[in-house]
Design brief:
Bound molecules: flavin-adenine dinucleotide
Low-confidence stretches: none
Order of helices and strands: EHEEEEHEEEEHEEEEEHEHEEEEHEHEH
Strand content: 25-35%
Mean pLDDT: 95
Largest sheet: 7 strands, mixed
Number of domains: 2
CATH class of the largest domain: Alpha Beta
Radius of gyration: 22 Å
Helix content: 10-25%
CATH architecture of the largest domain: 3-Layer(bba) Sandwich
Number of helices: 8
């Protein structure tokens, strides 16, 4: 049995790993030049031992599927640093004030960065079955199976498959790939209207020689409704001397419309106000705008903003399509923890189980 998996994010790799472990031949086609999708851990040139999670940063205790997977690969986690006071920024004209944040469910960081999970999964799949820079554009079906068309280094390639898993955010799976025969109208509508979780997120990173704010009794957590960065956290590694702050720019942040240079300058002023003069002395500044990432969000205009966490796992996306051979994977399709890492693992496993069951029946 041949299974083609479109998308080498956490969900696609979970499916590929489980099928490969069970003796099914898998081919993973990934459009980017790296695996992981929304998971991206960057090692800055100036401090290459410090992993920065440009994508997801946290797992929680109630996320049993991702925690189980991490345990299987002996990947450690450590608690998010929370000791000390939070800072509320009152804008440029008034001094910030400190506050005790309300208690919430403890969050954990992944030792070495979230990319470690991706790397461990990928290491279990033979290299020659993973194709990077391979953008899938078309999936064609007949009674014998499916053919997946992709473009790699300017060349068109075709892969025959008994089953195909499209492990992409659903709206992207609808806009970037043509299906022949076409998918049912109600399924397409459900795909188009499924919001890509964190697809509009914009994150900035500041790396320091030490987490100096801790000495002043600050946790590094900060909130601002007035300036460029709206939410900040201490994401220093627990076993390294360096200090790392990351910040989210909200959807309406003024910083989104600034040039990168203007933005960095404004952020420098903001963090100085919130954490003290040392905050200007960072050794690395980095940023990512996920809404500009073609293989996450398609096009900037295609982003559908939503408030809060949407209800994922649309029933219309659960069952296989194209004669029972095409499965929709990806976290947003998951009926459990949709949008999160946990959902990616849950749906990835669920799809693998369905294909293994089908293989048993067919044999
Ligand atoms: C900034 C940010 C912060 C987040 N924070 C958290 C957090 O703290 N905790 C948490 O649990 N979750 C968080 N998330 C969500 C989490 O990252 C996702 O749930 C998870 O990574 C989704 O995995 P996936 O495999 O379903 O999708 P993706 O990671 O989007 O994978 C899809 C893959 O398909 C590839 N692809 C796209 N188009 C094609 C094509 N045409 N052909 C071939 N390949 C293609 C993409 O390049 C990508 O690799 C965050 C996400 C972001 C962006």
């Amino acid at each position: 049995m041949q299974v083609v998996i479109v998308g080498g994010g956490l969900s696609g790799l979970t499916t590929a790993y489980k099928l490969h472990q069970n003796g099914i031949h898998v081919t993973v086609l990934e459009a980017r030049r790296r695996l992981g999708g929304r998971i991206q851990t960057v090692l800055p040139e100036s401090r290459p031992t410090t992993p920065l999670d440009f994508g997801p940063a946290w797992v929680w205790d109630d996320q049993i599927h991702i925690n189980k997977l991490m345990k299987r690969f002996h990947i450690k986690r450590f608690p998010q640093y929370k000791q000390g006071m939070s800072v509320y920024d009152n804008g440029a004209r008034r001094a910030p004030h400190q506050f005790v944040p309300p208690p919430n469910m403890p969050a954990y960081r992944v030792d070495g960065g979230v990319q470690t999970i991706v790397d461990r999964l990928a290491a279990k799949i033979p290299d020659n079955q993973i194709y990077l820079k391979s953008e899938v554009t078309r999936i064609t079906g007949d009674q014998d199976g499916l053919t997946v068309q992709s473009t790699r280094n300017g060349k068109t390639e075709f892969f025959d498959a008994d089953s195909v898993v499209v492990a992409l955010p659903p709206s992207l799976a609808d806009t970037l790939i043509t299906y022949d025969p076409t998918l049912p109208v109600d399924v397409r509508r459900a795909m188009q209207t499924t919001h890509t979780w964190m697809g509009q997120a914009m994150k900035i990173f500041l790396v320091y020689d030490s987490p100096f704010w801790r000495k002043s009794g600050l946790s590094g957590h900060g909130i601002s409704h007035y300036d460029v960065v709206n939410e900040l956290h201490d994401v220093s590694s627990d076993n390294l001397p360096f200090g790392v702050l990351f910040g989210f720019l909200g959807n309406n942040s003024v910083g989104r419309n600034m040039s990168p240079e203007e933005r960095e300058e404004a952020i420098k002023e903001q963090v100085k106000r919130m954490y003290g003069w040392q905050a200007r002395d960072y050794v690395y500044y980095g940023e990512i705008n996920w809404s500009r990432e073609h293989y996450t969000s398609g096009s900037y205009r295609a982003i559908k903003l939503s408030s809060g966490h949407p209800q994922y796992g649309d029933p219309l996306l659960q069952n296989p399509l194209m004669n029972g051979r095409l499965y929709l994977g990806g976290s947003e399709v998951s009926t459990v923890s949709g949008g999160y890492l946990d959902g990616a693992v849950y749906r990835g496993t669920e799809v693998a189980d369905a294909i293994l069951e089908k293989a048993k029946v067919d044999s």
